[in-house]
């Protein structure tokens, strides 16, 4: 018989890993709640009419598509079949797919439930998404996204709040030094406006989005290949080289974008966001204006964010931005919003690597009752139910195996206490309790036993 | 533009529904933890080699299959294509599917991680599964299962614990009167053994499994159609008609199954399970031996359970049983186990219908700070961060809209308090706090404000 295997790019998690991951999700969740975000749930399976053409050509290829049920080929054209015309056939034999992110489903949700939600709609969603990407280190085909979005308000107060959320969550998680990079898409649009290459804006964004991978030289080369003149490239380089404190950067930028109304709007928005934050020192994060930040996804229209670790080589661990028209694709306009996403999988990898996850018990069980069989077993079973009634997480070993084996079970499962009550003790209503870490042992009556285990 | 829609049989959930559902999941989860079960996670996507032929022919049809990526037709035979030979083509163009339950993935998990888990392995798993069933009231294509299983021990102590788990969880959930039906597959095997129809055991089980739908007469008719003699049908009827208390039922059963070693083993096991429970009164559930209980799924080999509501017409709200060979299909034998599953979707439907869900706030937000714009807005934003630093769930309205609109936002979102601090109050460091339910209003300094909102 073939050994069972996981599907490619998929993962199982052991209890200890689940507890460690829950620790991360719980901090993110409770912080989202603290800022007034509410949870929603959307299905894993969405119609492909919702998902297709939302993530670019590359994204469409990465959608997991669900085969239609029944005689799925009945409508397929014979010629397409014999020619193995994949694209024509795929559209006939699949109508559903697995969600690729939580943002497009959110847009659908807002449009469909517009009468049942409170606007501005602050929602969070922590759940799995799927991408048929080539698996590699740190990249999985099934992974969690942890998103908070606020939809239906143009207020930049929410953009400022996003920065505080990054700082609050990552500080609680004990993530090492991190930088919150901030930019505004209108500044990028402004440089294009000021230097008259608005028609090549997309090429420009695609090029600078590769900054992390190919460096400034690479970006410049790519821009040259796309036909950008030396003067334009020089202007773009100036934008990248703006330095100093955040307010110094903004002052320099103002001179660079003097002639761009769009650019000036972007500067004004950034100033407003920073002004909101001026009275509130961050816990740990450093805000850094970075005018080369682009965020590839093209639905962002204003503020954009990206959080990176200062001294650890890894892509962004959180990101987000403001968008004007998320729901326009589903026929609803005037729904500006801003949202952020924590890369929980990457955060887990960093914390695990740097040994920054808190020590977790392998289980929540507080005590194991040793099983001596016979009548003692029955008394032990009753005792177990008394502990359960007091909400003490507890177990009775299922058989009268050798004591050593029973103790081993407790050790392996990280259970700190064992109760070894033989016939005599049961008759006398005393319970010998042993701490298997310290070796400390004491005999307690039921009341003290319960008090001790509850503490 | 076409209106966006949900895929067939799929559901969205509003924040209030998510909170209500979390209330149910949390009680199930914390109770599982109390009994020593540990959480695991398995992927949504499994290889079809794992899922196929595990749920019978009908189940195979209900698997959601994921289309292979890329040129998925390249290996498909031309003749199969032109003949639209679905079964041959499907096996070539799909290799992955969505999990149909949490049990088969558990079996795979135990086999693959045998060296990393503690045996007996008490695991729970609360997550979604998918079935391409025809959607109807109370039946969804995507739904939660809440499973706890204990693998690697033949001890009937765990079977007794399953009964306590049903009782504990359903009692905490305030589910109305319920009956925990218990049987043992060996008793059904025993009646077949005693009356010499072991070769027709499957027909027998399939027939009595329909009891709820077609009643005793229907079952008898079906057995007749399957060629059961009158004498055998009479014996089966006697089994169904056994009455009295549970111990009286067992006594009657002993005479009926006098000549069946398997049947006697079943009786012995049931007695043992009941004996464990004899010292522990249930909170609310009533244990009822029901020898007509069959549980269709054929991996059960011993104790079987089914929980039904006493006075509410609905299928079972929880179920489970003991199995000897769950992992045998993946090449690992000697792994007996017992497991239960709560039908959280049905439990939600009952509690909602009977108005038994606790009153939930529409959000966890405690206070809304009214936004007066300008400098007041900046002070309000600082105040908001002070509240966040104290872990008080709070919001600042994002713009200086009319006060009425801002109050409406608080009301709609179920936020009990608002702070209305104008310029004067801010200068004097006092914060007017209003309870928008009672109308009560008071002016507090920061310290008292925080204390009040934390209480």
Question: Can you offer a commentary on this structure?
Answer:
Two copies of one chain form a homodimer. The first copy, chain A, has helices at 15-34, 48-51, 56-61, 78-82, 86-93, 103-112, 157-172, 185-194, 201-208, 211-225, 230-241, 246-256, 261-277, 344-353, 374-389, 403-412, 423-428, 446-454; strands spanning 38-39, 45-47, 65-67, 94-98, 121-130, 142-151, 178-184, 286-289, 303-309, 318-323, 337-342, 367-369, 394-396, 417-419, 431-435, 441-444. The first copy, chain A, has 455 residues and is of the alpha+beta class. Chains A and B meet through helix 1, strand 1, strand 2, strand 3 and helix 4 of A and helix 1, strand 1, strand 2, strand 3 and helix 4 of B.
Counting helices, strands and paired strands, the structural category of chain A is alpha+beta
Note poorly predicted spans of chain A: none
Radius of gyration over C-alpha positions of chain A, nearest whole angstrom: 29 Å
Mean pLDDT of chain A equals: 94
Oligomer: homodimer
Proportion of residues in extended strands of chain A? 15-25%
Task: Determine the most extensive contact between two protein chains.
Answer: A-B, 110 and 110 residues
As a percent range, the share of helical residues of chain A equals 40-55%
Map the helices and strands.
The structure is a homodimer of 455-residue chains.
Chain A: H1 15-34, E1 38-39, E2 45-47, H2 48-51, H3 56-61, E3 65-67, H4 78-82, H5 86-93, E4 94-98, H6 103-112, E5 121-130, E6 142-151, H7 157-172, E7 178-184, H8 185-194, H9 201-208, H10 211-225, H11 230-241, H12 246-256, H13 261-277, E8 286-289, E9 303-309, E10 318-323, E11 337-342, H14 344-353, E12 367-369, H15 374-389, E13 394-396, H16 403-412, E14 417-419, H17 423-428, E15 431-435, E16 441-444, H18 446-454
Parallel strand pairs in A: 1-5, 7-8, 12-13, 12-14
Antiparallel strand pairs in A: 2-4, 3-4, 5-6, 6-11, 7-9, 9-10, 10-11, 14-15, 15-16
Helix pairs in contact in A: 1-7, 1-14, 7-13, 8-13, 9-10, 12-13
């Amino acid at each position: 018989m073939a050994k069972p295997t996981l599907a490619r790019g998929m993962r199982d998690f052991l209890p200890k890993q689940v507890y460690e991951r829950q620790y991360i999700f719980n901090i993110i969740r409770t912080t989202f709640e603290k800022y007034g975000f509410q949870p929603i749930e959307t299905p894993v399976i969405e119609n492909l009419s919702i998902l297709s053409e939302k993530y670019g050509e590359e994204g469409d290829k990465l959608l997991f598509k669900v085969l239609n049920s029944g005689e799925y080929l009945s409508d397929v054209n014979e010629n397409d079949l014999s020619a193995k015309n994949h694209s024509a056939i795929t559209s006939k034999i699949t109508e559903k797919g697995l969600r690729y992110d939580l943002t497009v489903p959110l847009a659908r949700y807002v449009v469909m439930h517009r009468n049942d939600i409170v606007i501005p709609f602050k929602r969070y969603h922590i759940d799995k998404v799927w991408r048929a990407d080539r698996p590699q280190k740190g990249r999985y085909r099934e992974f969690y996204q942890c998103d908070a979005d606020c939809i239906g308000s143009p207020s930049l107060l929410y953009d400022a709040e996003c920065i505080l959320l990054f700082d609050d969550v990552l500080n609680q998680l004990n993530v090492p030094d991190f930088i919150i990079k901030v930019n505004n898409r209108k500044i990028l649009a402004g440089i294009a406006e000021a230097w008259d290459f608005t028609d090549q804006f997309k090429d420009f964004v695609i090029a600078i989005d590769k900054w992390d991978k190919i460096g400034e030289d690479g970006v410049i080369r790519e821009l040259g290949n796309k036909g950008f003149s030396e003067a334009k490239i020089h202007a773009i380089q100036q934008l990248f080289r703006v330095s100093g404190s955040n307010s110094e950067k903004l002052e320099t930028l103002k001179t660079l974008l003097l002639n761009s109304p769009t650019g000036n709007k972007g500067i004004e928005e950034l100033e407003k966001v920073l002004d909101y934050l001026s009275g509130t020192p961050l816990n740990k994060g450093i805000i850094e204006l970075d005018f080369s930040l682009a965020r590839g996804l093209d639905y962002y229209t204003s503020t954009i964010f990206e959080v990176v670790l200062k001294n650890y080589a890894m892509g962004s661990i959180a990101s987000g931005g403001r968008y004007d028209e998320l729901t326009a694709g589903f026929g609803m306009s005037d729904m500006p919003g801003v949202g952020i996403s924590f890369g929980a999988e990457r955060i887990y990898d960093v914390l695990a690597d740097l040994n920054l996850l808190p020590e977790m018990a392998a289980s929540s069980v507080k005590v194991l009752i040793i099983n001596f069989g016979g009548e003692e077993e029955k008394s032990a079973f009753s005792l177990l139910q008394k502990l359960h009634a007091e909400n003490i997480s507890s177990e009775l070993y299922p058989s009268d195996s050798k004591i050593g084996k029973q103790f081993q079970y407790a050790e392996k499962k990280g259970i700190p206490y064992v109760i070894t009550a033989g016939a005599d003790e049961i008759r006398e209503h005393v319970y010998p309790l042993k701490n298997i870490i310290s070796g400390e042992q004491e005999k307690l009556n039921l009341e003290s036993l319960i008090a001790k285990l509850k503490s």
